Amino acid sequence: DIKKAEAEFLEEHGTLQIQFSEQGEWLVIKTVGSAPINFNHAQGREDAFMLATMRAKRNLVEFMSNDVKSAKTAENIAKTSLRDIVKNSNTEMKNRKVDPDSDDDGVTGGMASEEDRRRANRIAQSVTESMSDNSQAILRGAFVAKREVSRENNMVAVTIMVSKKGINTSANLRTMMNGF
User: Fold this and answer.
1) What does the radius of gyration of the chain's CA atoms come to, in whole angstroms?
2) Which carries the bigger pLDDT value, residue 41 or residue 29?
3) Hey, CA dihedral for 48, 51, 55, 57, is it positive or negative?
4) Cystine design at 55: which of 13, 63, 76, 140 (Cβ 3.0–4.6 Å)?
5) Could you give the 3-state DSSP secondary structure of residue 60?
6) Cα–Cα distance for residue pair 33/52, rounded to 1 Å
7) Residue of 119 and 89 predicted with greater confidence
8) Residue 163 forms beta bridges with which residues?
9) DSSP letters along 116-128, please?
10) Phi, psi dihedrals of residue 54, rounded to the nearest 5°
11) Sign of the C-alpha dihedral, residues 91, 97, 98, 101?
């Protein structure tokens, strides 16, 4: 069983979530785009779905081309990793030194050891490098996973996902289709 963590980012047109493993490999990237329904008929909903899909794709493209290399992204992933490392650690609390000068912004309550911080930073670096190296494949492997209508808010939301398994499936389909 692979332990995994999830970091979330607020992008211009929605949210983006990254699930990653303890080994520093990204597993799943999800982004959600939303749009208002302007007209109360089927074409109005379809237009809103198209706009929401474009917004979700835009979130993914902008994240992959700009944010994945940023210090903010590495810091967010490192904090998520550190929180999970401390929470799931089998080390007895008496062996941990509380660091009141910790710069983890209260993420772990000062209970993270220096080794835990280094491990979290290594995981963050590995995840961001892996995503950056595979950005073109990630963009090609993205697919619409969910389409939702909120009648109360008169909005639609589209979730786009990409996973390593999805990228491999996408590549295999592309290869098979080129054979025809």
Assistant:
1) 19
2) 29
3) positive
4) 13
5) helix
6) 5
7) 119
8) 28
9) HHHHHHHHHHHHH
10) -65, -40
11) negative
158 phi and psi angles, rounded to 5 deg? -125, 130
Tell me the per-residue pLDDT of 142-168, one tens digit each, with 9 for 90 and over. 999 999 999 898 999 999 999 988 888
- Using alpha carbons, select from 32, 35, 55 the residue that is nearest to residue 46: 35
Rounded-to-5 percentages of helix, strand, coil across the chain: 50, 25, 25
pLDDT digits (tens, 9 = 90+) for 9-40: 877 778 899 998 888 888 999 999 999 998 87
Which amino acid does the sequence have at 13?
A: H
Q: Which two tokens stand for residue 175?
A: 């290869």
Phi/psi of residue 8, nearest 5 degrees: -120, 140
pTM (predicted TM-score): 0.74
Helix, strand, or coil here: 154? Answer: coil
